[in-house]
């Protein structure tokens, strides 16, 4: 039976220059591999060691990149190893099969959202009305499924984020603050639902997951075993559960450690 490994990407397996956390002396810093270029500039990295581990993982398990990114943003990433058959984008709103969105899955997601939570237009209007232009840099809608703001963190009022979270929860939405982005996502739009669907299709009897943010919590809880790095929203909240291991590593070295944990567990399962 195959083992399914569903992992978040940004700040879990891949890291922007700002998120690398290279705290060691320069001469001891790990060699890095660029895995994403945007507008002709390098954007995301993993260590060369992590790249080798991910290649091995892709050969021994069903590796499923699992991201809140849109399909277009995901397709900029060039991960090492075999091309994944499945990928989860837009926080579960799109299930890619060989790079193409599965229409039936997307239709099922849309039906659930229409049934269970307030419409995106209401949330958009609230964000536009209440977010202060002093700290908002961009208003964005992703795949017509959820909204996010790009903000100046040092100017952002934390109270506003808490108030938004309460307002959103009453309408069936969740709020997550990740780096310079504030996400508002419908409650039923989850990475875990899409992971369960891939497990069903592949016949996987063991599921492993990793992630760093509030939007990864459902994925980690749904997996048989999960890992979170020593940075990010979940670490800041000291969030854990019996099946989840909190790792001490922060930054790009956490990505390397997570891949070692995945590989060790996959090999011991075979």
From TrEMBL:
Coiled coil: none annotated. The keyword Hydrolase applies. It comes from the Bacteria. Signal peptide: none annotated. Keywords: Hydrolase. InterPro entries: HAD-like_sf, HAD_sf, TPP-like. The keyword Metal-binding does not apply. One of its GO terms (molecular function) is hydrolase activity. This is HAD family hydrolase.
